[in-house]
TrEMBL record:
Entry similarity comment: Belongs to the HAM1 NTPase family. Belongs to the aspartate/glutamate racemases family.
Binding residue positions for Mg(2+): 346
Organism: Lacticaseibacillus nasuensis JCM 17158
The protein's annotated pathway: Cell wall biogenesis; peptidoglycan biosynthesis
Protein name per the record: Multifunctional fusion protein
PANTHER family to which the protein is assigned, alphabetical: GLUTAMATE RACEMASE
Active site: 73, 184, 346
Free-text remark on how the cofactor is bound: Binds 1 Mg(2+) ion per subunit.
Quaternary state and interactors: Homodimer.
GO MF term (any one): nucleotide binding
Biological classification of the source: Bacteria, Bacillati, Bacillota, Bacilli, Lactobacillales
InterPro entries: Asp/Glu/hydantoin_racemase, Asp/Glu_race, Asp/Glu_racemase_AS_2, dITP/XTP_pyrophosphatase, Glu_race, ITPase-like_fam, RdgB/HAM1
Amino acid sequence: MNTQPIGFIDSGVGGLTVVKEARRQLPNENIIFLGDQARLPYGPRPAAQVRAFTWQMVNFLLRQHIKMLVVACNTATGAALSDLKAKLSIPVVGVIVPGARAAIRATHTRHVGVIATVGTVRSDAYAQAMHQKATDIQVTSLAAPKLVPLVESNEMHSAVAKRVVAETLRPLQHTDIDTLVMGCTHYPLLKPLIQNVMGDDVTLIDSGVQTVSEVSMLLDYFGIAAAPGQTSNAQFYTTGAAKLFNVIASDWLGLAVAAKHVDITDEPQTVVPKLPTDTIVVASKNPGKVKEIAAMFATEGVTVKSLADYPELPDVAETGTTFEENARLKADGYARMLELPVLADDSGLMVDALGGQPGVFSARYAGAGHNDAANNAKLIAELAEVPDAKRTAKFVSTLVFAKPNQPERDLVVSGTVSGRIVGLPQGHDGFGYDPYFYVPALGKTLAELSPTEKNAISHRGAALRKLDQKWRAWYQEDES
Ligand SMILES: O=P(O)(O)OP(=O)(O)OP(=O)(O)OC[C@H]1O[C@@H](n2cnc3c(O)ncnc32)[C@H](O)[C@@H]1O
Ligand SMILES: [Mg+2]
């Protein structure tokens, strides 16, 4: 029994035809779908670019811990399937072979038509897949580049769609083709129109339906199916505008879809090598910080250590005048000593009424013998005369990831959160100035938030999300 989701990728909404079938055939399985609508259509793009984009989608989904990958896009299957299969350790299924197999089963005249994108037609993948199994099949392929835009603009039911489909399919009419492969996952959304033009004697093959049967078989073969009776869920992501996606998806799937927008342009364009080590050290002596940072790596199977694990190490002095300088000093310094990848955070509170103080001195604001209570007492004293409206402030976190002895390659990201300093402490969670840092949008101080809630809005959370997008590619860059 395995409740991890199955990942589905497509250039846009087309892959939803496969998702619909998956929900029908595999109701216990959790599903996660990503459509790369921002860079659609894939059909006319060079194969190498489609492969790079596909890897970016895959790397995003791998972080969501998918147990199997379904490439619900014919163009991406043609361009990237063999590469994905060779490099991934989870099972990978494409849409072409299952569709080709079904066409061979269906045809009596042994003449099969294939409509697909320019890229798929150019790759000749359907003809090759069919000829591997049955050399006698005649395959006539037709590029239909106008169909994907019709679907993506939700024009499937318009008069224009009717006319475009009829014009596109004209070369296939009055032939002895008795089976037509819809060789793009977008096309089943136009199925009634296609069937109407081709006539009822032509069997339409929906590659997606066939693909899900193969997925089902592989789940059993690898023993990774979800348990029966489980309540499953489906999550949707798009790199484009969620609004139109939601309209098409909700309509097609018959369920209220609320897709999340994601940017995957910083994802690596090929397989991400495993970490050179299974240990990352967070170069901090502040347990509150370490906890927040470790949460991000918890899902990576990486052991997160902190300076508390290395009590013998000398301190690195924070002599910089900016957060970045100090974070670099800490990351580079400890990476050199430990010969391990080291992540450091330098952060602080910047209060407008105090000209940005305490800033880089936040930890030692109260001077000798400083601690959170003393720092907070000094802050409140300094602001005693300042009216509420003028007590605006922000937290800043700068993270620097360093590899041993390569300071020129440090990865640097920052995040901020804006709020107001209140006169009385509220809440007991978090650390440092959290009980006094009020976030108007939430009506709470940071100390009144759970760790997850704080990470969702905090300066460190924002910086960590940027880091999350970048650090894998950064590792990779270092290897070359
Ligand atoms: O240098 P390390 O060992 O990482 O730990 P530190 O606590 O000294 O960390 P900094 O030098 O970066 O100083 C940051 C100070 O800013 C304050 N601070 C930073 N992030 C905070 C947060 O999320 N909530 C509350 N206070 C925070 C807090 O007082 C920290 O001690
Ligand atoms: Mg410090």
